[in-house]
Amino acid sequence: MKEPVDVLIIGAGASGAAVAWSLAETKMHILCLEQGGWMNPAEYPSTGRDWEAKFYGEWSSSPNVRGRPEDYPINDDNSPIKVVNYNAVGGSTVMYTAHWPRLHPSDFKVKTLDGVADDWPIDYDALTPFFEENDRMMGTSGLSGDPLSPLTHPPMPQQPLGLSGAIIAKAMNQLGWHWWPSDTTVATMDYEGRARCINLGHCTPACAQGAKASTDITYWPQAIRAGVELRTHCRVREITTDENGMASGVVYYDKDGIEQFQPAHVVVIACNGVGTPRLLLNSASGRFPNGLANSSGLVGKNLMFHPYAQIYGYVKEPTDSNRAPPTCLWSKQWYDTDLSRGFVRGYGVQFVRGAGPVFEAVVSEQKGTLPWGEDHHRVFRKLNGHRLGFSAICEDLPEEHNRVTLDPELKDSHGIPAPKVDYTISENSRKMMEHALARGREFLETAGASDICVNSPIPWGGWHLLGTARMGTDRERSVVNEWGRSHDVKNLFIVDGSIFVTSGGVNPTSTIQALALYIADQMKQRLANLFD
């Protein structure tokens, strides 16, 4: 039988890496199990000209399309938004766009301010030092001082505005609307062993240059040097408990498919807002018949996706096309509640710099914008390298009927039940999306765009997986407490996006990692009383 480890972390992505690095200074025996493996940047799509074609197959952001051995299938048939993620050391940070906003202070007090959803049990100020620490570790670029965003101090200067940025800024200025260079985790200068961005291609299908921060090249090297053990190609089936109802370890399948048991004194889950409820529900037992840590009945419920309302068009001037990162500006003009708009809460806006030629050809043919026949090449020249986009990240409010359960039939390659997603877009979110599309159309028309097209919601837009194991002080209304510890199982912690109470209107990765660092800090402060 294996010796028990002090802390066992499940998942080596954004939050798992951050918590491992932070806890490493305790000199405890820390082990992380990751179902994927180490990635080889020499094999990333951006090393070749066919990087866009690969994005439709083995480098798709959808596990259902990729179907790698490390992936697990997801039944999202009953959802207009499809789940996208990545399973590897670094997790979805290998594939994300590197857009780097934070939740706003108002996002933590939605019930107080707007009378909807619930307030978080912590506030923005509690996370501020961990946002700053995470920005240093991930290496952010940006311009401090945005009047409508939380104050940040990026260690690198902002991304160049480029051809697209200048067009976007001019149109926004004409309308009198807010815009600002967006924070990103793409290096604009050599930083901590990472080379600066040289625009190899779109950021999403992985960065061969290493300019984009992913935790396999930021947190993990430092955590491993500090003594953390990382075991790859290990798929956890369930978390076990002892006669006292405490987590005792995990059952997992190793790289050869052999079932193993790893005992542990403390278990930390970092498996995202779909993977975490799947694991908890698969860990049901006689003591926990409805799933582990689920006395509230909320494990898997309150799934929040962020419906994306996207509108784009084509300008006469050349845009940046493949230039990385794909978003270089944001707007918080419509972020907080204004009841005259007909809905509560709001949305952030990402401006899209352009698209590559393969993507442009495929999507424009599907939309009917690009014809076949003798006019094909003329129209393609008009579209290619001239796209300008406006994408609104609409806040999802928590609703219990939006949920993750276990599929009764679908299983992964190890026979573990797969997650099933049931999700509908709320009326509030639909009104928000309509408002965003109207503003986006105004923006595009002001920029002189034609051939305007809409994607609302973006169907393959389930990047943000939030809320399915929410935090709170009331154990009947939450799964973990204000520092990530399970109400039911005192040595079980959750550190990923599933603990979000509300979703805000921005990409969540920065906040997910700040939360993970905050929880690790709380664990270190409370170690003597961890099992009380």
Automatic annotation (TrEMBL):
Q: Which residues form the Glucose-methanol-choline oxidoreductase C-terminal domain?
A: 398-516
**UniProtKB keywords:** FAD, Flavoprotein, Oxidoreductase
Asked if the keyword DNA repair belongs to this entry, the reply reads no
Highest taxon in the source lineage: Bacteria
The Glucose-methanol-choline oxidoreductase N-terminal domain covers 6-307
Matching entries from Gene3D superfamilies are given as: FAD/NAD(P)-binding domain
UniProt lists the family membership as follows: Belongs to the GMC oxidoreductase family.
Q: What is this protein called?
A: GMC family oxidoreductase
